[in-house]
Each structure stands twice: as structure tokens, then as C-alpha cells.
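Protocol step 4 of 6.
Sequence for Glutamyl-Q tRNA(Asp) synthetase (Rubrivivax gelatinosus) entered exactly as in the expression construct, tag removed. Do not edit the line below.
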Amino acid sequence: MYRGRFAPSPTGPLHAGSLVAALASWLDARAHGGAWLLRIEDVDTPRCVAGADRVILGQLAACGLVPDEPPWWQSQRGGAYADALQQLADAGRAYPCACTRRDIEQALAARGLAHERFAERVYPGTCRDGLAGRPARAWRLRVEGRVHWHDRRLGEAGQDVAAEVGDFVLKRADGLWAYQLAVVVDDAAQGITDVVRGEDLADNTPRQILLQRALGVPTPRYLHTPLVLGADGHKLSKQNGAQALDLADPLAALRTAAATLGLPRLGARGVADWLASAVAAWAGIIAG
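Step 5 output, C-alpha cells:
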């Protein structure tokens, strides 16, 4: 049975870009006759805003997007992440790391590799063979090889994770769980079969597939949706001026999100009627 999810971070209210991802994931679940779940990804506690999770739940409800099961909060899932890390460590796939960001940048600079804005800092593997007497700060996944996958919208894709990312963090130096580990553990625990999310998260997919394989859990199907861009040409976000959704007219907000997804303009008497028409339109798109 199809099981999808929407997994916002409670760093503030939903904006136009996040509604696109929420609507797409909801439509895909409904078009497949499946379940739609909600997970609050609040492991990065310094970035979370008090009460934002409840605001998000209210915004989704105003748009008729109500989860089929009670929401999960990642901040309540630390035990599951610790178990997964222990499993990886026992299998020799995870190891402790003593490096600071400055250590990594200096190691890369020594190789003549300058860090570019928005580019990944490729971990040079400094602690792969031991800490050399230094205290552990974080935990990393030992990465090997290239990953290939199929995206339902973007098509065939691949990445040499070792060369383009390196051994990536599972548990941060500040003691917080890394997004990559948390999302893989929770997708498996919730039985997620299909991940529908913004295109900006596509580059996380190969890392998550490597983790899924290392933990012995299924790999979902992926569909990455078009992005809403800010005035600076980058993904619309709170960092570049995204405003909270104006839900004085939820139907207008849904129509704007649907246009980004390539749905035609649909006549409707209200939100529920519009959503029913949108499911049929989405089913036609994914079948075509």
C-alpha cells in the first residue's frame, strides 16, 4: 500500500514553496489511494521556532490537508536514531570523527580545493582510520562507490558520493542527530513507500539510499517537485524573504501552488471540491 509523507521543519510558518511540496505529496497519496502522513522534522532544535509546529498543522488543515495518522515529532525519536547509529558502528559502517569545520577546510586547502558557496565540503577522510588521540566530536558514515536512482519527474540520476560528498555526518558535534540519519530511520519506521518533496532535496537522495542499504531498509520511490524561487533566483525560503502563507483565501493559495506543479486551473465551489478535482488532474499527469 502506498504511504507518503510531508515533513516540514518548524522554523516558522509554511510559505508558498512549502505548500507546493505539501500539496504534491498529498495529491500523490490520494491519486494512489494511499495514506498521507505528517512528520515534524525538529531535530535541529536551534533553528526551530516555538509553536511553529502547531501553526503548520493549522495552515495545512485550513487547506484541507489533514494527515491520515497522528503526526510524528523527530525530537521524540532519539532512541531510534541511537539504535541505528549503534547498528552502523557495529557493522563498521560508522566511525567517530574529531574534525572541526576549520580542520576540514585546511585539509581541503592543502589539496588545492577551495570551498565554493553553496557547494558541499567534501570530507577528506581524516578520521577514517582513527582519531589519532583526539576526542571524538561527531559520527560519520563510511561511504563507498556511486549511487544510481530513478526520480519519477527528473528521470535517471547518479552521484559518486565518495568523491562529491565524502563520509557524511550522522550525529553532529553538538550532539544533535543529522537530518540524513533521522529521515532514513523515520521513513523506514513509518513504512514510507513514496517520497514527494522539493527539487532542492534531490541531492540528499544518494546519501539516503546509501544509508538505507547500510541499515537494510527499503528504498522508497522518489519524486522531486519544481521549486518556487525568491527574488534572488534561489529557492524561496525564510532566508531570502519568504512570507508566511496568506490563508485568508485558502483556495487561492492552493491554486497558486497547483500552477507551480503544472496543474490546470480548476473550477470549484470550495476547498474540498477543488482538492477532489486536483486529485483527478494529478492522476492524469502521473499516468501520462
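Step 6, annotate. The longest strand covers residues 35-40.
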